Amino acid sequence: AHSYTKYNTWSEIEAWIDSTASANPTLVSKQVIGNTFEGRPLILLKIGKSSTSTKPAIFMDCGFHAREWIAPAFCQWFVKEAVETYGSDTEMTSLLNDMDVYVMPVFNVDGYVFSHTNNRMWRKTRSKISGTSCIGTDPNRNFDAGWCTIGASSDPCSDTFCGKTPESEIETKTVADFIRRNKSTIKAYITVHSYSQLLLFPYSYTFNLAAHHSELLTVAQGASAALTSLYGTRYTSGPGAATIYPAAGGSDDWAYDLGIKYSYTFELRDTGFYGFLLPESQIKPTCEETMLAVKYIATHVKNNL
Ligand SMILES: Nc1ncc(C[C@H](C[SeH])C(=O)O)cc1Cl
Ligand SMILES: [Zn+2]
Ligand SMILES: [Zn+2]
Ligand SMILES: [Zn+2]
Ligand SMILES: [Zn+2]
Ligand SMILES: [Zn+2]
Fold first, then answer.
1. Ligand 5 center to residue 298 CA distance, Å?
2. Residues 264 and 189 sit within 8 Å (Cβ to Cβ)
3. What confidence category does residue 176 fall into, taking pLDDT thresholds of 50, 70 and 90?
4. Fewer Cβ atoms within 10 A, N terminus or C terminus of the chain?
5. Which residues contact 15 (CB under 8 A, 6 or more apart)?
6. What is the complex's ipTM, to 2 decimals?
């Protein structure tokens, strides 16, 4: 059965999405924006006080990379906290009154399922590529942002295969289309990965500083400090290229170049002791501390609309 302190299967998450949406009709709505390569639904939860007018929004996705199980766990936790604390927590209440948060609990659904059933260390999508028996593309190399110029491979058998073309993956194209369609209202993009305990922002595809570098850094440092305040977990904030590695085709760089100024990639716990195999006992502390960072960013965005 579904548990916020377990790594749920996709079918448990899918059932949870339906029950959460139906239990909170004024705060949560579900929309299927497309399908994966293997035909599973790409699901978005829209969280926010329902309003007839269009509100500014934040887009947050989890589960780009199949093996990074703590990321989907966090997206589920965020939705739980939102519905649980709306009306009591001042910050969350004013956030959801003034903004909408689009939460995509699992981006790479096919990969997530495969990592539960076949290969725990799987990273990519599960698409079939013509001319090879190798499977899948790295969705975080598949966006049209310096595509395949650095830190990515044109070898379909590589774990960082950039795809035959930008947005070759149906998952990438579907999300890129949604964000393009809604770019006038989407004010922030947050994508959740693991591991390394980093808060990254553009650029990864170049060492050049982003136009809004100083503000992005200041906000990241504030968010990281908020995170650290709970259990002392230490994070490093910085532009992707210099802070983790230079790499092109990432969703955060693409969203930023589309004009979404507040664009961040979280690399959650840990720093390598367990790595992708973070024990379920660490789901609660990881998610509680990450809530503080995400709320910090969201509040900053709301105060700077
Ligand atoms: N733009 C980016 N932002 C963050 C990262 C790091 C993640 C960490 Se799993 C990745 O390698 O895809 C990679 C890129 Cl290309
Ligand atoms: Zn279960
Ligand atoms: Zn990742
Ligand atoms: Zn990672
Ligand atoms: Zn909590
Ligand atoms: Zn601020």
1. 16
2. yes
3. very high
4. N
5. 2
6. 0.94
